[in-house]
Amino acid sequence: MARLALRGRAAALLACAAGAALAALDWPLSSPSLAATFGTAAPGGLVTGLALASTGGLVRAVEGGEILFCADAPGGRSPLPSALGSFVIVEHARQVAGVYSHLAPGSASDYLRKVKPGDILGAAGASGWTEGEGLLFQAFDRKEGRWVNPLLLLPPLGDDKPPVIRSLSLLRAGKSYPLGETRSLGQGVYGIALESSDPSAAPWTAGPLAPYSIRLVIDGALAARCVFDVARASGGELVFFSEGPRAAAALRGGEGRYVLAERLLARGKVVFEVQVEDAAGNRRSASWSVLVE
Amino acid sequence: MRLAPPQGARPRAGLGAEPRACRRGRPRGQAREGSGRPPGGRCRGAETESADRPHYFSLAGRFGYFDAEGELLYSAAVPYGVALAPDAFATYERLSAGFAIRSPSGEELARASLPGYPFFDAGRRFVLAPDQCSVTEIGPDGRALWSRQFGSVITAYGGSPDLAAFGLMDGSIVGLGLRGEELLSFAPGGSRLPGIYGVAVSPDGLLVAAVCGLDKQRLVVLEKRSSAYRVTFHRWLDSDFRRPLAMSFTADGRHLVYEAPGGAGIYERGTRRESLIAAGSVGRVGEAVEGLGMLALLAGSGEERLLVCASPDDRRLIDLRLRASDASLEVDGNSFFLGLDGNLIRMDLREE
Description:
The complex is a heterodimer of chains A (293) and B (352).
Chain A: H1 2-13, E1 34-36, E2 41-42, E3 45-46, E4 50-53, E5 58-60, E6 65-71, E7 86-91, E8 96-103, E9 114-115, E10 120-123, E11 134-141, E12 146-148, E13 164-172, E14 175-178, E15 184-185, E16 188-197, E17 213-218, E18 221-227, E19 230-234, E20 237-240, E21 246-247, H2 248-251, E22 257-265, E23 268-277, E24 283-292
Parallel strand pairs in A: 15-24
Antiparallel strand pairs in A: 1-4, 2-3, 4-11, 5-10, 6-7, 6-9, 7-8, 8-11, 11-12, 12-19, 13-14, 13-16, 16-22, 17-18, 17-23, 19-20, 20-21, 23-24
Chain B: E1 15-21, E2 43-44, E3 55-59, E4 62-66, E5 72-77, E6 81-84, E7 89-92, E8 99-102, E9 108-112, E10 117-121, E11 124-128, E12 134-138, E13 144-149, E14 154-159, E15 164-168, E16 173-176, E17 182-186, E18 193-201, E19 207-214, E20 218-225, E21 228-236, E22 247-249, E23 255-260, E24 263-268, E25 274-278, E26 285-291, E27 294-301, E28 304-310, E29 316-323, E30 327-332, E31 335-340, E32 343-351
Antiparallel strand pairs in B: 1-32, 2-3, 3-4, 4-5, 6-7, 8-9, 10-11, 11-12, 12-13, 14-15, 15-16, 16-17, 18-19, 19-20, 20-21, 22-23, 23-24, 24-25, 26-27, 27-28, 28-29, 30-31, 31-32
C-alpha cells in the first residue's frame, strides 16, 4: 500500500496520469545497493539522487530515450572540471532527464543517440567526486525544473528494515541538548534536530542514508513534515520538499542529522513524537518529553 | 624536454614559420619535482600577453610553467587534477576537501577548505561542488566570496574577468558578476531538446556565445547593449554534438572559434560573417589561438593531431600532421607554443 501511495505521489509530482508509464522504469544496475538516498548528507551537500554501490556493473538506461549529453573526455580548452566524472544524460519520457554519473572513464556509450530500455550506457566506476565505486543516478523533472527522488520512479527494492532513530536534540546558541539525557531546560527558541538514517547493506555509503519522510509532532500538533520527494534551486540555494520547502543549508545538521524546525518552547512539559518512514513503507516511531522552566 | 622542431613545418607565401624548440630549463626556486624529465603537457595560454608572465602547460599527467625562452620554471605530476592560471595553480585529489593555492614557483599563497574541484579562469578562482550544480568563487586568501546553486548540472563554462557564464543541462545560460550577482539569464530554446554544449565569453565580457540544443543545434551570440544581453546573431547548425565542445574567443576578441562538423567554425565579431577552417579528418578541434591575424588550431584525437595556421577565410600557412597522444597550443604575440607529449616547441611567425 505504501508503495502504491509512493507511485501515486510520483505521478502527481510528474504531472501525469496516475501510474502512467511509471511501471516501465527499471533500475540502472542489476543488483542495486543503496550507498546514498535522496537527501543523504554527503560532503558538499545533500544528495539529489541515488548513489548505488557496484564494482564494474553495467549501467543501463532506466527506460527508453535519447542521449542528451555525454561527458567522457576533457572538453577541449574549457577549464571546467567534471565533478561528476564521466557521465551521461538521457532524455526520458515525460520530460524527465536521467543523469548517470561517475561511470568508469572511457566507458560511456558516446556513440549512442536513441536508447531503448536496458541499453548499456557505460560501466559503474569511481570517476569524479564520489566516495566509492558505483553510480549516481538522478532524475530531473525538466518541466518543473527540479530533481525528483528516483525511489518514487523505480521499482521497489526488497526492504523490511525500518529506519533507525538515534536521537532528537534541541539546539540553542551553539549547544545541543539531546532529549532523553536532558530533563529540563530554559524556555526560548530551539532548533529541533533529528538523527536518523535508513540501514544500508552497501559496501560503502556517502553518509547515513536519509529516510523518505519524517514527521514531527509537538504536544499533539504537527510541527514539521519533511518528505524527501523533490529538490530545486531557489534564490541560488538548494531547497528540498514539495510541501513546506526548506533550504538544504538550514535542513542539514551534520551527518545523518536534520534540523526539522525551530520552535519557541514555553514553560511546562513538552512532548515530542517522531515518525520516520523509508521509501518501502517501513516505519519507526519514538517519543520524548522535556520540562521547560 | 626534447628539442626537435616539428617535422614538416613549411613557410609559405611571404610569411615565415620559424620553429624554435624550447630548451629545457634548469629548475629554479623551491618545491619542484621531476625536473629531470621533460614535462608532458598541455601548454595552455597565458591569459594576458605579457613577456614577464610565465606560460603554463598540462599534458600527459604533468603540469608546470615555462618562460618564452624555454626555461622550465616548475614541473610536477598532476595528482588527480590541476587548476592552472598564469599567476597561480592548485592541485587536487579526486576526493578533494580543500587545496593549496600556489604561485608558479610552487610557493603556497593560500588554502581553501571546500569540497570539490577548483578551476581558475580569466583572473577568477572557482570551486565546482561535488554535485556539479554549485559553484563558489574564492578570493586570493582562499576564502569563499559567494556561492551559487544552479537548478541543474553545469555542462559548459566560459568566462571573462567580469562575467562567468555557466551553461546548464536544462538549456539555460546564467552569467554571474564579481559578487555572484546574476548579470545574464537566458534559455536559447528553439530546438526539440534543450542543452548547452559550449559557452564562450569575449575578453571584454560584451559577447556571450553558446552552442545549444539538439534537433536542431544552433549557435547563439548575445551582445550586451546598455545593461542587458540580447541576441545579436544566431544560426542553425548542421552539427549534432552531444558532448562538451571546445569554444573560445581569440585573445583580441575579434573572432569566436567553435567546433563544427569538419573543422572549426569562425565567427567574426565585426562583420558577423562566418567561415570554416577545415580540420575534419582528425576529429575534434581543441585549442584555437590567434596571432598576426592568423588563427592557429590544434585538432585531433587519439594519436593523430593536426596543426593548422590559417587566415579566418582558411588560407593556410601551416597544415601539419603530427603524432602525439596529447598536444596543446598557445600563442603569445607572434610566438606559438606547441606542446606535443614530452616536448614544448616555440614557433615564431614573422613577415618576410
